[in-house]
Design brief:
The chain has 419 residues and is α+β, with helices and mostly antiparallel strands. The strands form 5 sheets. The chain has a 7-stranded parallel β-sheet with strand order 19-20-21-22-23-24-25. A 5-stranded antiparallel β-sheet has the order 1-3-4-8-7. The two termini are 23 Å apart. The N terminus is likely disordered.
Length: 419
């Protein structure tokens, strides 16, 4: 797994809270080329294909918010250095949002701000509730890097158990890792002993009862010298998809004979196909095409997940090709055009169906910045890499998967090695 995106902790200064929301850790993920070979190689390949693209240094602020009140709380708007996001002069914000959209009493949420390029200097972040500023803090994008991060949070499909994987940034062994649950979950979970292998640490968390599907689990971890990282993961049923894209005429008995368990749909899903999938034990990932699901999909047990849209990075390329601007939009500034709509579709779908995970499938366009731009939008991150179609080898799948896991961590990823 490639840790091209380094986890950094930025100490928040001038923090104050209005009402019930309080800021905790602030994690900054900055894309740095050179720590791992694959990221640098992907960027150089893209730059060779489109010299104007260059190598971008994207950045992401992750602000963890605790709700100390007795009712749910949310954030209505974002300002940077006192300016509205669209007018901010310090750079371009590709997308931003709070998960969950309403933080339950006693719960913790995550406000994410995705920048196209890392800001050159510290900036003030104001998270507003109506006319009040709920949280105000200064974030330094160049804060010292942390030496480890959450790599993956996996949920057991059979038991109320989560396995947490952490990985060091520099490849050196980890030691003294302590993973902690938030106060509202501590009484209901038991954190096991850390297990170490090279640069990886694995910790099991047993729950008295499984966390609710679709809820968000907040975790913190500290190493032997006191460095702290955090993450927010959406709870899934631990299902591992093995399947294929297909259409409404998919031969599902052939899926069963091949040992497949998942159908990813192109376009609408006929009710008859969903019924057949349920009878055969096939789970369906329904293609939303940037529109919330209908009642037929939400009510059907065969649907495991929703695909927000297929290959939004390719849609970005198509949009700028068919809508040329004057002056032209540079290659590096084109990726992420559809990210706000993906975020909006996620929010609308989660409000209608709070239990099922949402997926997003990326292409190889604008690699590797496309994976980092969209990596934390969905709950499950999928990627096409087409090694055979373009005369490559399956080694391309491994290289891509390393990079994609870095971009999406700690969420699960699915590799589509050929279409």
């Amino acid at each position: 797994m490639n840790l091209l995106s380094l986890a950094r902790i930025a100490l928040a200064s001038a923090v104050f809270a209005v009402g019930t929301l309080h800021a905790g850790l602030v994690v900054v993920h900055s894309q740095w080329m050179g720590d791992w070979g694959s990221g640098q190689a992907f960027a150089e390949e893209t730059a060779a294909q489109a010299p104007a693209f260059g190598i971008l240094l994207g950045c992401e602020f992750q602000i963890f918010l605790h709700n100390a009140g007795a009712t749910s709380a949310g954030v209505e708007s974002l300002r940077l250095d006192g300016q509205e996001v669209s007018a901010w002069q310090g750079g371009e914000v590709v997308w931003h949002r709070l998960l969950p959209s309403r933080i339950p009493p006693g719960g913790t949420g995550q406000y994410t701000i995705r920048f196209r390029v890392r800001p050159a200097s510290p900036c003030r972040v104001d998270l507003n509730r109506g006319s009040d500023t709920a949280i105000s803090l200064a974030v330094d994008p160049a804060a010292s890097p942390r030496r480890f991060r959450f790599d993956r949070v996996a949920f057991d499909p059979r038991e109320p158990l989560a396995r947490v994987y952490l990985r060091s940034r520099d490849g050196k062994p980890l030691a003294g890792i302590q993973v902690s649950l938030p106060d509202d979950a501590a009484a209901h979970g038991n954190v096991g002993t850390a297990q170490y292998f090279r640069d990886i640490c694995a910790v099991d968390i047993g729950f008295a009862a499984a966390p609710a599907l679709g809820s968000y689990l907040y975790l913190k971890a500290q190493d032997e010298v006191g460095e702290t990282v955090a993450c927010l993961s959406r709870v899934t049923d631990g299902f591992m998809p093995l399947g294929s894209f297909d259409g409404g005429d998919a031969d599902l008995p052939a899926f069963v004979r091949a040992g497949l368990n998942t159908l990813v749909m192109h376009g609408g899903v006929p009710r008859s196909l969903l019924d057949q999938a349920e009878r055969l034990g096939i789970r369906v990932i329904a293609d939303l095409k940037l529109a919330p699901p209908g009642e037929d999909q939400r009510a059907h047990p065969a649907v495991w997940s929703y695909l927000i849209v297929d290959e939004p990075d390719m849609l970005d390329w198509q949009y700028h090709r068919t809508n040329p601007a004057t002056p032209p939009v540079s290659w590096g500034d084109q990726v992420g055009h559809h990210a706000p709509r993906c975020v909006e579709t996620y929010a609308a779908t989660a409000a209608l169906d709070p239990m099922r995970p949402l997926a997003l499938n990326l292409d190889m366009t604008y690699k590797p910045d496309n994976w980092y731009t969209y990596g934390h939008v969905p709950d499950v991150f999928m990627h096409d890499n087409y090694p055979l179609m373009y005369g490559g080898t399956l080694n391309m799948t491994w290289r891509t998967q390393r990079e994609v896991r870095s971009a999406a961590a700690p969420n699960p990823t699915v590799a589509l090695y050929q279409n």
